Amino acid sequence: MDELSKLVGENGCEFLDSAKTSTDVYMIHVLADAVFTVLKEAKSKGDTGVDVLSHMNLSGKTIPAGAIITPYKEIFTDVTVTTGSVMLYKLGK
Fold first, then answer.
1. Quick one: DSSP state of residue 61?
2. 67: nearest Cα among 84, 54, 51
3. What's the predicted TM-score (pTM) here?
4. Residue 7 and which of 14, 52, 74, 91 are 20 to 30 A apart at CA?
């Protein structure tokens, strides 16, 4: 996927206010103040995700609406939001 495709989100998005596993998300946009309890990332689709909540200093924090979260590696594989809502932007169709 080229950088322009990521910019325009041409591979679609998904609303989330609970949990999503085995996914391929390259960006998370917080729509309503959110608390994450799971946030795992991986180098490529199909890889086992590694938890990055602590690494990103997001554990126990309320992330304000409007924030954009991107992975250190290529994709987020698992995302759980206990309060609030987010939009997940997908890497593939």
1. P
2. 84
3. 0.86
4. 52
Contact 35, 61 (CB under 8 A): yes
Residue 28 makes CB contacts below 8 A (sequence gap 6+) with 68, 69, 70, 76, 79, 86, 87, 88, 89
Closest by Cα among 5, 17, 30 to 90: 5
Sequence-ordered alpha helix ranges (H) in 1-67:
3-8
Q: Which helix (DSSP H) or strand (DSSP E) does residue 29 occupy?
A: strand 25-42
Give domain limits for the chain: 3-90
Which tokens hold the place of 40?
């795992």
- H helix and E strand count, the chain: 1, 6
Low-confidence ranges of the chain (pLDDT < 50): none
